[in-house]
Design goal:
Number of strands: 13
Distance between the termini: 41 Å
Keywords: Signal
CATH topology: Porin
Largest sheet: 8 strands, antiparallel, barrel
Protein name: Outer membrane protein beta-barrel domain-containing protein
Strand content: over 45%
Shape: elongated
CATH class: Mainly Beta
Order of helices and strands: HEEEHEEEEEEEEEE
Number of helices: 2
CATH architecture: Beta Barrel
Signal peptide: 1-19
Amino acid sequence: MRKLISTTLLLVLCFTAFGQDEQNYSSTIRVQFGGAIPTGSFKSKSFDEEYPPFAISGPLLQVNYARTIKDNWAVGGTFALRRNPFNLDKFAPKGDELVLHTDSEPWQSVFTLADLYYQHQAGLNTLYLRGSLGVAFSRRASVTVDTSFGTIYRAPDHGVAPAYGLHAGFQQNYSRFSIGLETGVFATRPVFEVQGSNATYKQSMATINASMFLAYAF
């Protein structure tokens, strides 16, 4: 009988300790919306370049998952959709009498990334750094300009390339729910085909990002 009681108590203590250890781990889902500002060659509007992208600021949507693994460290993943319109006003000014009609589809990247977080808790606030590595599925902007002498058309193209991100964030916690701000960069460099030939070129697609988010911890 004593042996049975002792075994039972030992099992209870083991499960209790395991449960307490599990409570030290927390998961968080963040939904972010903000803007992405092109930087580097991605923002070029110079006709002196062979393939100027004419990218301008556009929306950025992110969904992040993070799970604390030890002390201040967490791992997770990010799905992000970034769209940067083509600057038609610079490419074909509306005041140009030769331009009859313009249309375009934006530059677009879909990111799937693995994340590593360093987090610091300060009262009800959380500060964090997030490094990301993964893949981006990108689409080149398409452009149509109808003129008195014919149509100028730049066709879309698709490319897959490695991608990375580095972000810093501030989070105000209210029990399970939180709100916060995040800023950082996303970058990828896909290969696109030169229109009308078999040649290819690499296009840097880097942006500086700023977002607001709502988070839920569980």
